Each structure stands twice: as C-alpha cells, then as structure tokens.
Amino acid sequence: MAKGDSRRATPRTVQQPKKVSKSPQKASPSLAAPSKKRGATRVVLASPTKKRERTGAGVNPANLFRTLTRIAIIAAVVALLGAISLNIMRMLPVFTITAIDTEATEHLTEADIANLAGVVEGTTLLNVDDAVIEQNLMRNPWVKDVEIHREYPNKLKIVVHERQVRTLVLMSTSAFAWYIGEGNVWLEPATLDLSDGKTAKDAAQEIAVERGALFITDVPATVNPMAGSEVSDEVLLAIDTYLDELPDEITSQVVYFSASSLESISCVLSSGVEVSLGAPVQIEQKAAVLTQILEQYPGEITYINVRVPSSPSYRRIDSGTVQPGSGA
What we know:
ten-stranded mixed β-sheet; Rossmann fold; alpha/beta; 328 residues; single chain; three-stranded mixed β-sheet; Ubiquitin-like (UB roll); 8 helices; 13 strands
C-alpha cells in the first residue's frame, strides 16, 4: 500500500471448503432404489397377462347393452322420421307429373301406351305406383314387360317391350289364323291375304315365313284362342315338346307342323319329306331313326313314319309302296 494512504486494508477471510464425510454406502437389495427427491413417483409396469385381465374385467355387460339399445332407438327414430317426411312429401303437390314420355312399338302407339298406363292427373313422381302402371299395360297381350323411369322434376318415362311372334296357327275352319307370342301367349288374329286365288294355308304360311315364326295347321276344332291367355291345348303343347327335344338338325328343317290330333302329329321338312311323329314319346329314338333314314337315302325319301321308332317305315321316290325300315 502506498505511504500516506489513510485507508486501511480490510483483511479478507478465506473460507475453507467444508469437508464432506464419506460414510460407507450399504448395498441396496433392490435393483433400483427409490429416489429420495421430492415429487418423484415410482412406476411399476404391469405384465401383459394382468393388463388383459384388467381390460376384460372393465367391460360392463349392462353398460354395453344400454349403449346398443340407445343406438337402436336412435336408428329407429331416424327411420321413422324419414318415412314420415317421405309420406308428407308424397301428399304435397311437388314433382307433379305433367309429361309422360313414351316410344311407339310395332302394335302400340305413344298415345296407346300413355292411355293404357292410366296415370291419374295430379299424381307426383313420389307417389306414382309403378306396379299399377305395369299391370294396366300388361292387359295388352303384346306387352311383354315394362320399364318406368322418373325424370325430375315432372316427367315420367315409360318403355314397353313387346312379345315376339313365335307361332302362327291356322284354325280348323281355315278362315283365320292366330299369333302365339313369347311366353306361349295368344296375341291376336292375323289378317290373311286371300287375293290372287291364294288359299288360307298358303297365305298363313307366307306370313309365318315373313315373321320367322313356326307354322301349325290342321289343329282340332277344340282349339279356342283368347287374347292374353296362355296356350293350353294338348296338341300345341305336344309340338312344343318336340321342338324342345328334337335336335336342331331336324327342327331347323321343319316348314310346318300338322296336328289334327295327338297321335297324328306330323311335320314337313324343307326337303319336302313328310314325317309322321305321333305323340311326343320316345323322341330321342324317333330322331335317331329319322336321321338314319334320311342319311341312308339322301334326296330319295318322300315320307317317313317314326310313330313307333322300333318299327319305322318310309316311302322312296318312284316307289308306290311303303317300305319298312331297320329300326333303331
């Protein structure tokens, strides 16, 4: 310190570090001793097995049942409200049908379809009954099925599909013929053109060829067609059986069937051969015998009788007698 300085030096006390006594630590029997710090929490991990046991035990069946019941009630209420709203909408004058869109078919005009549908004025697209419309249209035998489409906000579209003609039957009086359509339904009489000296059979056969339909003639007087009714006559159903069971190689050659009775059913092939078939039994055997004779005498046969397939007979060109066949 410099001489003459009136300030006195203040002695500094140097604090010695405290000695920490190191007492020997006892080994803890546990792997991890709990912390002595304030707020520390001991975490104990549960085994997977015990966790599953606690989870399963925590599901209360009564609570689960109440929850499912509430969900079911809510769903029922929503469905009920939706049904009520729809019924209310049906009663309101919204989406009222003001136009019916149709397309004419071969036998029904657009006006015919609209009138047959019978849609009442004031009907809406929401309350129109498709089943009633279809039922009304199906009263016409030409109608096979109906499609109904809603075109919002006010148009109803109706599409009609007609039955195709399957068969033309010349009645026993030979004065008129009737169409049979898909589904074996009587459709309506055919108009025969008897000009230029044509017979009813010739005129009817021309129509059948034009329409690609099967032609049946000489049916018994008991056949009494009614438009819209199904065919139920024994001879006509027998011919259907032949068409179903004879091979295509034979049915594709048939020009027409003659069916004055069940036992006298016959057909004429495109080659001009007349085939006596009889009742629709043993059809497979009859077909085999018929095919055998036709192949054995190509272009020489005029008549074949296979009513009894085990004892067939046939007539050849320039032969005035009927010759027995070999059977099958």
